[in-house]
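Thread: "does anyone have the structure for this chain?"

Original post by V.I.:
We have the sequence but no experimental structure in hand. Need at least a predicted one for the grant figures.
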Amino acid sequence: MRIFLAMLALLIASPVIAETQWPVTEGDHVIRDFAFGTGESLPELRIHYRTLGTPHRDAEGRIDNAVIVLHGTGGSGAQFLAPQFADELFGPGQPLDIARYYVILPDGIGHGGSSKPSDGLRARFPRYDYADMVEAQRRLLVEGLGVERLRLLMGTSMGCMHGFIWGEAHPGMVQAMMPMACLPIEIAGLNRMWRMMIIDGLRGDPGYAGGDYETQPAQGMRNAANLLTVAGAAPLLFQEQWPEREAAETEGERRVAAAMEGRDANDMIWHFDSSRNYNPEPGLERITMPVTWINSEDDFINPSGFGIAERLAARMPGGRFVLIPETTETRGHGTHTWARFWRDELVALLARSE
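Reply from O.Q.:
Generated one for you, tokens below.
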């Protein structure tokens, strides 16, 4: 499987990894008659997931070691098996040692192995949003896996935003939270503009055919890949690695081609449209569990110059905000997937939330 490590859901390609290096169990939880916030419904909503480790039960029989990790836009739970994440966290003696923790990696609605437009409904697929995605995650945990309380919720990019929704809607279910690479504010300004540029470019391509295309709409897909490549870039790193024009052009084209590979236009439209009504800012005081919120200085999507994060973190009783400085080693928006940059903060969060 090709893993996309940058861009909202890690949309810039990384090398193929072998999931068999970790003892992964995969499954599907089917939710009957799932109702979406739009009033639409599906008779069956499939949520695919991966788990590592074994559930531990306390004296009252409740699972007390569950950790959920939520992926970003266009990604899947499989991306967290990449070496730069898993090899830093899941091994013996590491922060999320799977001999100690039960790690759950779901695919969100519209992503990976979960129900999505490209399964067959195409543009007739329900117009899901982040609240729908969080509710499906909750039902996977409670109904599918028997998890009533999470020891830790982690989320990257879109998963970071899902974390803020979780923290407000179900604070009693989350013991500690580590959202990475997002802001808990309305999707507006440039962030909304480039998302709409992707959506409009896809729908405006004559090859889109109202969503009933026979082949992917090439120009719309290239437009989307161009925008995603820029949004997921790491300026200092890219300048150091490709300081000459021809090399930069070659690498840019490679990244655009990789970002187009295996993607579906309807799925992508639904991905970027699902953030349309996200805005947890008014309710941040409801997030009462210990939180370590991490962004990176070179993140195009969540600029550090806004000063928003520092102000909003103070509204969460247990909130702590960390900004990873930009260097020639950080990965722009994709820094969240390289655990070496924030591993120590995770250790500290686990300790202060015991």
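V.I.: this helps a lot. The beta strands are 3-6, 12-14, 25-35, 41-52, 66-70, 102-106, 152-156, 177-180, 291-296, 319-324.
O.Q.: and The CA atoms of residues 4 and 12 lie 5 Å apart.
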